[in-house]
Design a protein that fits this description.
By secondary structure, the protein is mainly α. The chain is built from 44 helices and seven strands. The two termini are 44 Å apart. The N terminus is likely disordered.
């Protein structure tokens, strides 16, 4: 039933305001609307705050039905009109047509660059199976080159509307260890492992209520992981898995779909030319040939030869595409002659009449690739073989470093030394493009639109076999690992400089290669692996890979005895592991690791290392609210960094000293520290440091009651953090934005910002951030008069803050619980107020000015509610030992 508009449409002048009104009118929370339209809750929040540009086709296709506007054309038109205005577009929004198959769901489904040729029957059959409620695991099986991945991607795209939480493509081809299957799924979904919890339990918890489709591609080489996937699906009843594999997984509840070859003609009984052209194998072959030779056409003269090519290749898509790629050199008859003679009649016999079991089909496809490989010149063969070491693709620079050695693309070390009368090596890019032209290598856009080269997995497997057979595999892998060590060490300085956004993106693109290099170093050269892992310190931190980086370093250190690696490497590894533990809230481990590092550094006399270890220890003291000790250590670090002219670290120490001054209520001194650090960051072009300065200045503005200034400064910081992909910085900025909104009485918007921040902190595993958000969300709930929720949030925040040792946060939680105690519990509130006051006096962290009005109001209300017993209860709470006070507060909540 249509709603009746009670206010003028003209009163809505922004898209966000009208969207918020319509959502509330439809009695939808932001989460409800997000689920209905396939957005995240944060995206809906940003749309309502006019911080995200609306997508007009998605508005028409999803938002209008979700908001129940089909029968209210004026409201729908106004929503589209304001959406168009927000984008700066002049077209009539009512003229927007809704796509027949809109794709607005979340996920990472790749967009294929070529159409799927004539697989209508298969798509319909697989789609019908996916729609069944009793199907949770569907495996597409078939030989290599049959097109399982391409078919799976197409089906997932067609039916993605069934999955409100999205469709996710998980590329398992790069991995060989079954133990890495679940971590790879988690990484693709953006799910971070926290603490010691097994990755399966982490995935269970994250996916238990989500409705999504996992496209698990190339599972056959890690098939022993299949039972764990089955466990995951049992724990997540709304999740379905579409698997591509060369063999069945043999799991209960598994549904199989055998992918057939493409229909192919019978050369002995050709249909009319028009019908022949529509046969799938012929259509695929001619389409691929025409992409290379525009003048090619299927004619009466070549029809039989083309039919014979398709028949002898058994309708295998990869084989057809590899054959078509050679059409630049060979016409149809010459190509057919090559096919019949390239690998001998036995290979062609397998292609047409051979058994259908997996191993023989592998040999068959290998024969096709052998033929393609035979057409390469010596340099191209060498290059293809060496490209097998890359996981997830590579750049031209990486290829040159790893594959270009003495003897053209041979395996010598050092610069090329040409033999007499020999030509200089062909430039590496020419070799790469030659392989791209011959369909043995894919070229995809990388960061900053630079080319990135990726081997098809079947070709990569073939190339790996050639590399192993050459006897030089370990030599190439050693150069591969060395390149990524150099890359990481080069990136280390850049991550605090003017080009840091490009370097963060570059490291993210090389994530799989970096891990592969670390795996090689773990077996062959632990010391170099530790150098690589430590060089990625800021990358691990900014991108939220705290557990991954710390786990690798600690495992490597345990593997080596005291003499296994140089003292300087051991000291730095301990220090970086301590840094990562610090940001996970593991303060005890941070102290142990950092003190061990400091001892080694002092024995070596390495001033930079001493400063770094002291920095960790100072941060622990700060987080434990030991301000005098923290200030002393930060001052020591500052002197060392100044002497070493480490300007980025000098700015960091100034920021840390500002944090102490802020907590102690000296906002003028804090601002001076932040401004001095900001000047250094600007001189360095350090966007991440600039974002930190804006964030900290925003916090100071907030604590002093300048909520508009706090919002503006935090927005600037958030913009930088998002540009850099810095999740942790963005999460903290969202918290300040939310609290500023709360103080401006925009409570619902505040809670949405804080909920988005909390999700990010949980994802990152930052315990201090989680404690902060629980406390602040309690404050917003209290402002909304939801006392029950406020008390629950304050209680959760108190338990966590006490567990991690954040006493200042404990004080905020005690005060929050006192304020939320409500009528009739005045003595309980007085007791909590007294305990909080004692704690603030003990650590030297007074209540900030922004909180005083609410605090005094709650204190006065409690005093008025129990005039006789208030003072005694307050005094009792003030005398109580802190641990007992926390236990009392949690028991009474």
């Amino acid at each position: 039933m249509p709603h009746t508009a009670t206010i003028s449409l003209a009163s809505f002048v922004t898209f966000g305001a009208l969207l918020r009104y319509l959502r509330r009118r439809a009695r939808l929370q932001q989460r409800d609307l997000a689920i209905a339209v396939g957005y995240s809750e944060g995206q809906i929040c940003r749309l309502e705050q006019n911080q995200r540009l609306p997508d007009l086709p998605t508005l028409a296709a999803r938002f209008i039905p979700a908001l129940d506007l089909e029968d209210e054309p004026e409201l729908a038109a106004r929503l589209l009109e304001l959406g168009a205005a927000a984008r700066g577009e002049r077209q009539d929004p009512t003229a927007i047509s809704v796509p027949a198959n809109p794709s607005s769901r979340s996920g990472n489904l790749p967009t294929p660059l070529t159409p799927l040729i004539n697989r209508h029957r298969e798509v319909a059959a697989i789609g019908a199976c996916i729609q069944r409620d009793d199907v949770h695991l569907l495996t597409l099986v078939g030989p290599p080159g049959i097109g399982k991945t391409r078919l799976g991607l197409h089906v997932a795209g067609v039916w993605q509307e069934l999955f409100s939480d999205g469709v996710y493509f998980v590329a398992l081809a790069p991995i060989r260890d079954p133990a890495l299957v679940l971590p790879t799924i988690a990484h693709t979904l953006g799910i971070k492992k926290t603490g010691e919890q097994p990755i399966l339990d982490t995935l269970r918890a994250a996916l238990s209520e989500r409705q999504l489709l996992l496209v698990l591609d190339n599972l056959e080489q890690v098939a022993s992981a299949a039972p764990r996937i089955a466990e995951l699906l049992r724990a997540a009843p709304k999740v379905k898995a579409l698997v591509t594999s060369r063999a069945a997984l043999h799991l209960s509840g598994e549904h199989l779909f055998v992918v057939p070859p493409l229909d192919r003609p019978d050369p002995r009984a050709l249909p009319p030319l028009e019908q022949l052209a529509a046969i799938p194998a012929v259509e695929l072959f001619t389409t691929r040939v025409q992409a290379i030779r525009r003048d090619f056409a299927l004619t009466h003269d070549n029809a039989r030869v083309v039919a014979e090519i398709c028949a002898c290749l058994d309708g295998l898509p990869l084989a057809l595409e590899l054959a078509a790629a050679r059409s630049r050199l060979f016409g149809p008859q010459a190509l057919l002659d090559r096919l019949r003679g390239a690998s001998g009649p036995t290979t062609l016999g397998f292609l047409v009449d051979g058994p259908r079991d997996l191993l023989l089909h592998q040999q068959t496809l290998r024969g096709t690739i052998d033929w393609s490989y035979d057409l390469l010149d010596e340099q191209e063969r060498a290059l293809l073989m060496r490209l097998a070491v890359f996981v997830g693709g590579c750049t031209e620079e990486a290829t040159e470093a790893v594959c270009l050695g003495a003897g053209s693309w041979g395996l010598g070390v050092g610069k090329v030394t040409p033999t007499p009368n020999s030509q200089l090596p062909t430039p590496i890019l020419d070799g790469l493009m030659a392989l791209v032209d011959k369909s043995l290598l894919k070229c995809e856009p990388g960061p900053e639109e630079s080319p990135r080269f990726v081997l098809l997995e079947t070709i990569r497997e073939y190339a790996r076999e050639k590399l192993e057979a050459s006897g030089h595999a370990e030599q190439v892998r050693g150069r591969y690992a060395a390149y990524y060590l150099r890359l990481a060490e080069s990136a280390e300085r850049e991550l605090s400089g003017a080009r840091q956004d490009r370097w963060f993106a570059r490291l993210e693109a090389e994530y799989n290669n970096l891990w592969a290099a670390l795996e090689w170093y773990a077996e062959c050269d632990v010391a170099s692996g530790l150098r690589l892992a430590c060089s990625l310190r800021n990358f691990w931190h900014a991108r939220g890979y705290l557990s991954e980086g710390r786990s690798w370093i600690e495992a490597a250190l345990m593997r080596c005895d005291a003499g296994g690696i140089p003292d300087s490497v051991r000291a730095r590894s301990l220090c970086v592991a301590g840094f990562l533990a610090l940001h996970q809230g593991d303060l005890a481990c941070t102290v142990t690791l950092s003190e061990a590092s400091l001892s080694i550094y002092r024995s070596l006399g390495v001033r930079r290392g001493i400063a770094d270890a002291l920095h960790n220890l100072a941060s622990v003291a700060f987080m434990r609210n030991e301000y005098a000790r923290a200030a002393e250590l930060f001052e020591d670090c500052l002197a060392l960094y100044r002497a070493l002219d480490e300007r980025a670290e000098v700015a960091q120490m100034l920021k840390n000293l500002g944090l102490i001054a802020k907590d102690q209520g000296d906002f003028a001194r804090a601002t001076a520290f932040y401004q001095e650090g900001l000047a250094i960051r600007r001189a360095l072009g350090d966007k991440r440091g600039i974002a930190q300065a804006y964030f900290n200045l925003g916090v100071v503005a907030y604590w002093q009651g300048d909520y508009a200034g706090a919002f503006e400064l935090s927005e600037q910081g958030l913009s930088f953090y998002r540009e850099l992909g810095d999740k942790m910085g963005a999460a903290y900025s969202l918290d300040t934005l939310g609290m500023a909104r709360c103080k401006q009485d925009a409570h619902e918007a505040a809670m949405q910002l804080l909920e988005e921040s909390l999700l990010m902190f949980r994802d990152l595993g930052d315990q201090f951030g989680i404690a902060l958000l629980l406390t602040d969300m309690g404050g917003v709930a209290q402002a909304q008069a939801d006392i029950e929720r406020a008390g629950r949030l304050y209680g959760e925040g108190l338990a966590l803050s006490w567990n991690i040792g954040d006493k200042r946060r404990v004080a905020f939680c005690l005060e929050g619980l006192a304020t939320a105690a409500g009528p009739g519990r005045a003595r309980h509130a007085a007791w909590l107020f007294g305990a909080a006051a004692a704690l603030r006096e003990a650590i030297g962290a007074p209540l900030p000015p922004s909180e005083r009005a609410d605090y005094e109001r709650a204190l006065a209300a409690a005093r008025a509610d129990d005039r006789d017993g208030f003072a005694a209860a307050w005094a009792e709470g003030h005398r109580m030992e802190l641990g007992q006070a926390v236990a009392y507060a949690l028991a009474g909540n």
